[in-house]
Amino acid sequence: MNSPTTGGPDTRPSWYEIRVQGRLDPRWASWFDGMALIADNSDGTTLLRGPVVDQAALHGLLHRLRDVGLPLLSVVGVEPGRREDDRPAPRPRTSENQNPGD
Question: The whole model's pTM is what?
Answer without folding.
Answer: 0.68
